[in-house]
Amino acid sequence: MTSRPEPGQGVELARAGVRGYGNCWMHPRTLSQSASLIQAGEVWLGLEVIQHLIKGVSDGRAADRKENSQFSSRLSDLTAREHEIAQRVASGESNKLIGYELGITERTVKAHLGNIFQKTGTRNRLQLALLINGHSE
Predict the structure, then answer these.
(1) Neighbour count for residue 91 (Cβ, 10 Å)
(2) Where does the chain show beta strands of DSSP type E?
(3) Cβ atoms within 10 A of the Cβ of 128, count?
(4) Residue 37 CA, distance from chain mean position
(5) What is the DSSP letter of 20?
(6) What is the rounded CA–CA span in Å between residue 32 and residue 100?
(7) pLDDT (tens digit, 9 = 90+) per residue, 17-75?
(8) Which residues contact 22 (CB under 8 A, 6 or more apart)?
(9) What residue ranges define each of the domains in the chain, with the CATH number in brackets?
């Protein structure tokens, strides 16, 4: 927990192996949910930290990403719109921004993401970004 949340600090802590990063002003329900996830072995870093991680993965691999069979096969069932949304998620965009730029509601973006996660076998935005940017999970 920190009193001054900074995505860069969260990223550094995640790289050091910390499984949870939050701030002193978290809503009690969010704190409870994050604690439950961490106790179950999951990671909870908060949206801004996740977006920072995704941007770092995207920036680091965009220039030299190699097409591979795993990448192609896991994304081959996506529709054109799902591909577009997946690419935007992999570059770190929020659902709200994706919806605004594509002229669809945030709820529609979430529905597409549900389909994308199911078709790609990913569970969250970070796994999807890692898959798209050529990193193994």
Answers:
(1) 18
(2) none
(3) 25
(4) 16
(5) B
(6) 31
(7) 788 888 888 888 988 888 888 888 787 887 788 777 777 665 555 444 444 444 567 78
(8) 1, 2, 5, 30, 31, 34, 44, 46
(9) 66-137 (1.10.10.10)
